Write the structure tokens for this entry.
Amino acid sequence: MVEDGSPAPEEEAVLAESVGLAMLVVLQTLTPAERLAFVLHDMFAVPFADIGQILGRSTDATKMLASRARRKVRGRPADPGHGREGRAVVAAFLMAAREGDFDGLLAVLDPNVTLRIDNPRGSSVRIGATEVATVAERGARGAAMAWEAIVNGLPGVVFRSKDGRAFGVVGCTVVDGLIVEIVSVNDRARVLAAGVRDRPPAG
């Protein structure tokens, strides 16, 4: 028991992982130029003039990019789908994906759901329940272990391989009992940098 009221070490580790996941997923909602301007200036204090040279844009244009990025980050819904219902929807989504239950996947996806995927090869967007369900079913087969997690206040999932190596994270926005947006980051280096921990293989 921690007598001074501060969280125990394991609680701090979980909190750190959640915060890292939150930042990772929020940044994925920005365009590459917005992300670069926001991160370099607001987190590393790089002057706008220097960032503009990197981006090939004027200083004023770079300032506008950073400003737009801040508005997007601050304007994200606080906790859409974060409650018990949202977690239950994502749990059903994960179970259906694991079992190859295509109809079960469609049942929890909005017809116009958007899936944003970011990996070392680049970024892509998939739209529509059928296409997203196909990707989810295939992705679940490639992950040996998956843990439900809260990602930026959203219900989500952390994926790990058979040896416990974390390689992906997903955050879902749930509205009226359906998943309307999924952000997927499949980049081990970035997932680890966000504070997600590897786990030893079961058994």
